[in-house]
Amino acid sequence: MRLKDDGNAIENEKLECHEKSSNTETKDSTENLLRMIWELVVWPLILENSSTYFSVEEYRQKMAEICALYEIQPVKLSGLLIAMVAKGLLTKHGNTYSIHSRHMPYMQKKISLGYGRAVKEVYTTE
Fold first, then answer.
1. Are 104 and 52 in contact (CB under 8 A)?
2. Which of 5, 36, 47, 111 is the most exposed place for a label (fewest CB within 10 A)?
3. Is 0.90 topped by the overall pTM?
4. CB atoms within 10 A of CB 34
5. How many angstroms separate the CA atoms of 72 and 92, rounded?
6. Cα separation of 53 and 46, whole Å?
7. Is 30 helix (H, G, I), strand (E, B) or coil?
8. Is 88 left (phi over 0), alpha (psi -120 to 50) or beta?
9. Dihedral, 99, 61, 47, 105 alpha carbons, nearest 10
């Protein structure tokens, strides 16, 4: 019996590899955007307000400033606030967003809380 040579096998393999790479890049890109929004918008809003929450309007104003400063299209950053809610970093109550209870000591002491530490605090069960 003779095996049939499939000339498309290499191309298929390349496509599969590219799809995996593309998914990984998308995930990494989203994480980088979440990090940027947390560190440049969300956490500074919390510290500026000396409050555990902020309104959607305050968020939009801060986002507009950051987008103008870094020349980023706001459309590229849409949905990230909801992603933070899904991760447990924020909770939504009507027109306001609140930080996780484990972030409150950082806010009270006016300590800079990076995205990585914020995520660890949410998922740490001690």
1. yes
2. 5
3. no
4. 21
5. 25
6. 7
7. helix
8. left
9. 0
Position 20, amino acid = K
Phi then psi dihedrals of residue 45, to 5 deg: -60, -45
pLDDT tens for each residue of 45-90: 999 999 999 999 999 999 999 999 999 998 989 899 999 999 999 9
Domains and CATH numbers, the chain: 9-123 (1.10.10.10)
Q: How far is CA 10 from CA 18, 28, 108, in A?
A: 12, 27, 57
b/e code 99-113 from CB counts within 10 Å (16+ = b): bbebbeebbeeeeeb
Distance separating alpha carbons of residues 72 and 52, to the nearest angstrom: 27
